[in-house]
Records
---
Amino acid sequence: MTAPQDGIVRAVADVAIEVSDLTKSYGPVEAVRGLSFGVERGEVYGLLGPNGAGKTTTVEILEGYRERSGGEVRVLGHDPEQRDRALAERIGIVLQSSGFYPLLTVRESVEHFAKSYPRAREPGETIALVGLEDKANARAQRLSGGQRRRLDLALALVGDPELVFLDEPTTGFDPAARRTAWQAIRRLKGLGKTVLLTTHYLDEAQALADRVAIVKDGRIVAEGAPAELGPASSSYRVSYLSDGRRVEHQTDDPTELLARLTRDALARGERLEGLEVSRPTLEEVYLELTAE
Amino acid sequence: MALAWEQFRLERKMFWRSPTAAFFNFLLPLLLLVLTASVFSTDSDELDVLIPGIAGMGVMATTFNALAFNLTFRREQGILKRVRGTPMPVQSLLGGVLANAVTNAFVQVGLVVVIGHVAYGVRWPADWPLLVGFTLLGVVCFGALGVALANAIPNFDSAPAYVNAVFLPVIFISGTFYSTDDLPALLKGIAEALPLKHLIDGLSAAIVGSSVDTLGAAAVVAAWALAGGVLAVRRFRWEP
């Protein structure tokens, strides 16, 4: 009797986000057209897709900013549309863009926002976590773009949330700032946080996410671990030069193809110039799946 | 409640860091008081009109104008959206913001009364409880209308136009600088329908003891407060 119930309880407790058949329309425009995915606790899950794919709409529904048109959504066991304070206390949100009180310093901002959480993290420690110690006494209006993004992250983390939403956390960053941000996000995983990340940068999804869903036109077109996503959805590519022109073959079984190609070449007494065997990268899969 | 207090403390801190806010909230009304009194008013009858008039204008500037600017700015900057994603309740946020406006309004009215007494020999207010009561009612009314106006202002760039399109005509026809008795009938009718004239009437009864239907004046201000409150809450916009 008790065993199946335990199973259910554990299944629910292990899941941070559950989305099934989510739809959202703005008037005649369907931004989200039947999305389903789940995020486990402690997982970094990436929604990857081009601009306008419906990522932000989806995330803002999960954060409680927008009402869905259809489907079911659970975030830490709550329906975000109800805007329960108990849920707000357990999540941290980094929006794609949002402002600060310009006249407050970094420390004052973090201290202020800490006050509304029941189990807030120590403000100084939070500032250190995002690497803004040097700017703790600088007013928000004097921060650079990258520093503002780190303050965004500090304000999302000061409530010590279980689940963190990051909507395009590094858009507009230079490469160095982006590496720093990635380190901060990796640290979240180390702290046992669940992270839902949206990005249109493929390398970002690859570097950070345990699992990735590729979103296009409001639908998920592929889902899986970044490393699995490539080979599972396409075959091997074998190519070589013949009379200076590159010849390409696609195959699911490169062993057989290579044996045939090399045997023929040997029979002709030629070499297979420029021979390459490659598996499609996630980038190629991504470009193929999101092509217009 | 604790969070409303936290928000209030934050608002005070930010207020004193913003010279622009301090200028529009305090210095401008006082400057107008001193200039108008120096240029036009030599006799006590005119000062009896001017002191309550400037006090009423101060109440409007510190609440209606300040909140319309402030909330439009915060909405456009995405500060409201950020706060909405935290456990801070709306009531605490707006409670703190309004308490800040109340403080500014009381300081403003206090300054006007003190300057009127010290510099121009206007006697101390005849009825202190009435003064506090009308200031409070005025703050609630113009605070609510300020939030309601912020809901209608499309972006921060256009906020000065919207605010002044209301504020300037209203202060001119509501008896801030001169008695409304001398106004043409049409303007007088408009002023009668709006809350500022009635707030100034109430303040006038409290400060210089003029004979005014205080209940009637309070009723008009309260009606506007109610209408403003409904529009402020129903149409509240968190995002641009």
---
Amino acid sequence: MIFNKEYESIARQDLDQLQIERLQSTLNRVYRNVAFYKQIFDTHKINIERIKSIKDLSSLPFTGKEDLRKSYPYDMFAVPLRDIVRIHATSGTTGKAVIVGYTKNDLKMWTECTARVLSAVGITAHDVVQIAYNYSLFTGGFGFHQGAEHIGACVIPSSFSNMPERQITLMKDFKSSALICSPSYALQLAYAMEEMGVHPEALFLKIGLLGAEPWSEKLRAYLDEKLHFISYDNYGLTEIIGPGVAGECEKRSGLHINEDHFIVEVIDPKSLKPVDPGQEGELVFTTITKEGFPLIRYRTGDLSSLIPEPCACGRTLIRMKIEEILQKIEGTSPHYQLILGREEGVEKIELKVEISEDLPSIDELKTLERLRGTIAERLKQELGLQAKVTLAEPKSLRNTVEGKKQRVIDKREL
Amino acid sequence: MLKIRNLESGYGKLRVLKGISLHVKKGEIVTIIGANGAGKSTLLNTIAGVVKTQSGEILFEDQQIDKKSPEKIIGLGCALVPEGRQVFNPLTVKENLTLGAYLQFKQKDKSPAAATLREVFSLFPILLEREHQLAGTLSGGEQQMLAMARALMSRPTLLMMDEPSMGIAPLIVKQIIRTIIHLREQGVTILLVEQNAKAALAVADRGYVLETGQIVLEGSSSELLNNRDVQRAYLGKEYKKINE
């Protein structure tokens, strides 16, 4: 179902007008209220009055994660702290946490955005929605909670738990029809169900709304089979709002970005120039309705490409896809870990990949060696990355921190 | 219905509007709020063609109007109720209204104008009572109604109103607000400029906040009412806390 037809199916030319109006008023506000933006616009000699179309956005400087860390805790807020009604933070898995503040209107907008994502995958007022994200500074739990209540679903804030058995019991007893969590946590639940001997038919799940980390079509197919639901992807990041930035519709062919609130750009991470339409690059977002923590051209570090063709679902909002490389290689499971290290001053990167139990002749050294070579070769081809590849036992890379997979382990001391 | 991109205008070398973009959809009531001197009246006068556009564009019903003369713009269905009423004091109420239908009178057939006059009188019965009175002898509220009625005589699809509540008794303000709502029900789209932000946001669907010639905020009326900056600057809330 389309939650807000007026905006999700807006004519592209009307969206263009809406975006420029909102962008201009956001620029006027950040220039007046955020010292960081006043300073970088002034040093780059940028006159924000010259931003006359969405294309002109590319003449503005980027905001990076490092800028946000330097502003810890409140320096990027565009309103006084007394106007903030909620604080969230990034998990800080790759460094110091970023603190994000929301005004009343920001929460209202966020609720609308997650309500859209939930509705798009078919969740309605008749669903029992179990939210297994942590209810904490992390945005996953509260973000979806508001949206699910807003559309009138019955919400079970089961939160993340290191005891999957408890989660499964709740799912069974409360007849949960939709599960919201990270893909790796869903996998953990699937494994636990097998160990507990709970057949998926004993549950009432119809829909899985998974996100907060990249996952593959392969994992999707596996989870759909093991949990007897249809799973959907969604995308968001705390710096921009949390979940609700983009989500899949029932077509499962890309994630619709809520462009009436966030302007998306895709850039070449090396040249920092916009890529051609449909090409892969780094996602860059500008918030155009946020009051508390507006960001101009925020570099997400996430790779994706946009799908310029309209979607059959009737939404006019553009779609993005997140690319995966490992998923295309037979014999690997969807689990991997990157280990960053330094040997004698030289930076090294190691990629640890879990092998799949289904790999034929798994115990033959020759097979494993060939697999390792294939992965290393593909990494070099597609990413230009010289990495040491090691293989890990099936099911050995399943540890999660707060329901989020630890994808990167940084062993460098400085 | 109305679409404005990067509008700049002003008086001589004085640039008042510094790149305004806004839109009004058919059937909406949209308000522009802002302090004295923010550029609210300049904006309406520029749309009406009274003040010249320096750069940017104004589209009305997909037609570019930023280079058109005021009478052409009225002819397209975009009428202005100016700030401070500006009725013709030495003329009677009826003569004022007839002038409002000037464009129709230029055509030979006068019957549509007569029909519009009847409609306008039914909207403002007080004006029928005062039909032959000189406009200068009316009260402030009655003059405001006359100014609105005069604009309606041109049968606009977009009615722009500049500070209709200025200098008028609160009771009459309520009556004018009721008329605005009634007009919208009749299919007239309304762009309302007000210093009385509370009254304007109560009736409008959406609003823009204008500050020194730039739009600093836009959103639905409820969002603007929820915004603490709007509350502090335009709704007189948190008065004591401002100096903290």
---
Amino acid sequence: MMIETTQSPSHDIVTEPARTSGLSFIKSRYFRNLAESAHLDQPLEALYHKTVPIHKHSFWYYFGGLTLFFFGIQLITGILLLIYYAPTAEGAHKSVEMIITQVPFGWLIRSLHSWSANALVLSMFIHMFSMFLMKSYRTPREIMWLTGVLLLLLMLGFGFTGYLLPWDQTAYFATKIGTEVPKAIPVFGDMTAGLLRGSKEVSGTTLIRLFALHVGVLPLIALLVVLAHVTLTGLLGTTSPVGTPIKRRVYFLPDYVLGEGIVWLIGFGVLLTVAFLYPWQLGKAYDLAKPTEPPAGVHPEWYFMFLFQTLRYVPEMVAIIGFTLVLIFWTAVPWLDRRSKANKKSPLFTIIGIIAILYIATMTTLAYIAVGNEASAEATAAKPAAVAAPNTGGGK
Amino acid sequence: MEALDKPRKRRTLLKWLFGGSLAAFFAPAGYAVAKYLSFTAPVNGSATAKLSAADLSPAMPAKLLQINGEPIIVVREPDNAIRAFTATCTHLGCIVSYREVLPGTESKPAAGFYCKCHKGEYDLNGVNIPGTRPPRPLTELTVAQSADDLTISLTPKAKG
């Protein structure tokens, strides 16, 4: 049992499971010749024989693939949006307005892009925490964990840089706050904020910078890291948590892929329904020439809310240093968790994982309660003024 | 024999159902993307271009203007007639200009329209000069004149 869980599946297959369906095209002469000429016959042969272990917690592995699926949706819809989007302070809001009101199916493509971004982050969080709690990062999968942490940062980067692009008032103020926080970084604070903004305040220069990051720099890096992450999954395979017996093995092709396909279909169905019924909204344009106060309850996307809420309790500098340390710890987990490394149960790290989930859940809930309170407070504060106005008019 | 054939038929049916659902998904998705891509953004501009006849002086006998983003050229020709043509070269779409002496006609000067990109030439009627690259003449446009005000529209001038 212990041996089986420590080795990667490609080495410990003694007898292959019976195939329930064939992949006849792989065995076809043309395909084989083509693969051979590209020296891909051996990797493909390995992929053909690759099996996936099935155990009590196998379900959670689907979220990795689901995240990949949403990443694909982001690439396709993102490229489509790029065709009509104009990254200037004067043109950005107008171009998004044109996409959602004039371009055929533009509203759907934009809505899919925004909703899929959120679905991606949600699926990624589920994937990350389930992998953490199953200690999937243990030897030999340390690098997989490392690329995963990198992808977490990249995807959050996508979220942050993409938020400003529609150039509505919420986007403007959320980015203003988001680029103000780095100023508290010791020594490099002003430089970091300056690099992000490209000007003293959030301006057209900031928009182009974040746009360049969002559609140029981040996708390039993310594609490479996704490729590494997925290739490593292919090479090392998955295993079961310590102490969970492997029930059986199924072929990766086509059995596991078809199962993943069902999950993708469900994911896409939910995404399409939500994007269709609740088209992503566009707020009022922000005019740099006419500064206004922020609209009620300005807040970042939900996945930044726990950071946002933490800033209410501690000074920026403490939060930045704290989260940096947490991130370093999170990255180094495969090396710090020595019990998992030795294939022993590691309750301490299970508790750490649960604390992390509870912290994020609690802080996010508190943040939304606070935002809700502020919005209703503002509404009640605005009411008497609205009632008073006609009275004074009548008095005259 | 028939019983042996049954699973194979079932497999064929399943294959068609699977392929069919894929097609049923990708066809509308492809349609939506094709519609999305084929949108042409409306050009915000007036349907006519306005100009004062006095703007066309002997020193500056031609002007390039645009109607709805389409370049046009208005010219006071040597016989003093004011005419307008589409300014897009019919060869590869560059913008033509007016020349009082077309290159190559120095020995026997002739005015006309010239395209810099591939030395395309048109005569004063906008007709492409044989031996140069443009395959078709420029389209002459309608010029309405009241006193000094010229109004040019994209309507081709009636031949007469």
